Amino acid sequence: MKKAYLTALPYAVYACIFIVAPLILIVVYSFTSSGGEFTLEHFQRFFNFDNPAYMLVLWRSVRTAFVSTVICLLIGYPMAYILSKISARLRSILAFLFVLPMWMNFLLRTYAWMTLLEKTGIINTLLGAMGLPALNIMYTEWAVVLGNVYNFLPFMILPIYTSLTKMDQSLIEAAQDLGANRRGVFFKVTFPLSLPGVISGISMTFMPAVTTFIISRLLGGGQNALIGDIIENQFKVVGDWGFGSALSVILMVLILLSMNIMRRYEAENAEGGVLL
Amino acid sequence: MKKQRIGTWSVIYSALIFAFLYAPIVVLIIFSFNESKSRGSWGGFSLKWYESLFRNSDIMDALYTTLSVAFIASLVAVVIGTAAAIGIYYSRKRFKSLMTNITYLPMLNPDIVTGISLLILFLFLGINLGYTSLLLAHITFDIPYVILSVMPKLNQLDKNLYEAALDLGATPLEAFFKVILPEISPGVFTGFILAFTMSIDDFVISFFTTGPGTSTLSVTIYSMARKGIKPEINALSTIMFVVILILLVVVNIRSAKDVKKDSHRGGGSFL
Amino acid sequence: MSKDLIRLESIEMSFGDKKVLNNINLLVKDKEFVTLLGPSGCGKTTTLRIIGGFETPISGSVYFDGKKINSVPAYKRRVNTVFQRYALFTHLNVYDNIAFGLRIRKMNEKQIEQNIKDMLSLVNLSGYENRAVSSLSGGEQQRIAIARALVNHPQVLLLDEPLGALDLKLRKEMQVELKKMQQSLGITFIYVTHDQEEALTMSDTIVVMNKGNIQQVGSPIDIYNEPSNAFVADFIGESNIISGIMREDFHVDFAGRHFECVDKGFEKDEDIDVVIRPEDLKIVPPDKAQMSGVVESSVFKGVHYEMVVEANGFKWLIHSTLSEAPGDTVGLYIAPFDIHIMHREAAE
Asked: In this complex, do B80 and A10 lie within 8 Å of one another by their Cβ atoms?
């Protein structure tokens, strides 16, 4: 079937128009002034050290994402580990249950937290009934972190779980044979071998967390705008596409860099990755 | 190999995480049946929010839009995507890896970047934002999921299958429709359902590529939620949860059947 | 008088930069069982696929029944193929698989039913009509693949290493069955394999191939007894191959002494290769021996003992039903008609 590759041409054309071209356009717009000329003003506006408002926003986004990722890792790894120790039949169903929220609508899950967290929400009602002071984390940075962790925890658990279950059991047995106790086996064999899964989990958590604007908008309110919010704002409200594009380019570069770092780290660890 | 028993701490930990993940959803569902408007106290069982939901024309319009876009986009995606998967499968290495990378691009890119890039494209091309732009955007991110579902099935095919059909007298077209297509049809069907689910589920890309007068459910929920909580949203969310849950279970059961034949994937489902 | 059914003329084939077939000329007669035999990569499967129409040669012509069929696509050729991994349609049951070709040709269903019944009984799988492909064993799948091909009554059946995935016993049974089938149906079989024993068992004619070239074409007995060069001698059966000089007709020197033989037609003092089969080296008392040497090893192989004897500077491989102890000195004798002379091949 030598000419069969022609059937992919419709898609190739479609992809060029709708996937490749738009990305090129963003880059072009980021260097275009409102007058249509080549300019660096959008980037200069971002990298403005006298008025680093935007850089601070990026920094805040990265920081929030980082904190969220670390928390996800600390909570998620033990959970993945426990799951991997369950017997095979039960395991699939349980893994499915834990990962199911991941596929549920992002927006809805974040919204669900809104109802829980707000001043007259159920958490505060319960706390009030127990005579405890009301929790006022809504519209704070911690609400955003909480929203992140809630949304991305399954993304962290899944790859680690997959990595742990695919592990060659004979390596663990070899370690035990050589005298390692449970602790030793974990730190010297299991954890290092699960690193590809950990890296996957980190990328699937950190990247979306940096770029989100739903979570920050709904749970963080206006004060805690993240880079995603700013970009959305530029396009939908302010109408400054050049600047919005520049910010998007900066975001994309940031993500590309972190993906590259992850990939290099993953390559050093030999075993294949588990993304998708 | 000795299987370790799960200790009590593990069970407690798992239960806590499980509760953490599902509590908000469960609360949401419960309160959608709440008589009272309050989000703190229970006023009795009631379906009134569901009723007002169905009477809300904005929401019904959004529902129609969401379903029709998802259906049409998935259909188009299945046709283009299946053709693409076949073309990629039979192509030479360089073309193959190029197309594979392009296919992965929308999936790896943050939604916001995909959404914005499409927004820019539409305005650059002079396409007004509305139903058409929404549809085109959905087709764009649906196709990769179709390709992703069909490729494994293609890889599993006996490499002589097409030739066997020719050998028995079928023309290339007959061979495709009578042999190749039926053999990969499970993948095509799974691809359709997956694309449909992703379309229904999408928010960010729809948000940027839709226009005045056109809205999907997610976008509608978002604009309502920004103004504060409304019980109708709870009812809507509940319905959406249930629908997506059913779709996901279907996809997974189908994939689990395929996984039994494919020894490469360990530990569970398509997820 | 059987006619020439398939003729390959000066066929050349490459995949990219790689030359795969070099000036292939081949004649296949009607009702013949021909085997293309050779190691992996020798071009035998490519040749088969060119006949089937799945590959187009770079140059050269393919003739079927006198007509040039280079431009005739696979689905129009009067040949059918049994593929290596059977290529059964898993979405159809046994009946629909076999019926596939007949339905393409719009045969009516009653006729199809009868044809399938006959075919299933030919392959000893009567009653299997409604079985699912996935429920069949390897041997059964293979026979369904054969049935699916044969039900179309082709003049030629192409078989691409069809027995490779079967276990030894089943393979040997199938070899006999395939030969019987070919003879009772009276059609041509073109068979590809790397297993020389298989080729010797089933074929009327063997075509030995190596690195894209035909090395020798002949009946199993001819190929076995009179290999035309070192490659064929080495590939078919086990052999001792030693270099020598042909002094004149019926006289040859090798292993440091003169032997009488039955070959002629070589140049005077031509450098040649001598082939002697292990079973043709006889162990004899010293007074009858042409050479004597020391037994290096003796291994029991069930059918015979396999021994290595070093004599006259060469390690001779010997098959015998009697064993000699390692370390013993023995005498060797080779009868003149067991000495086969081959032209020395130019180094490749």
From this structure: yes
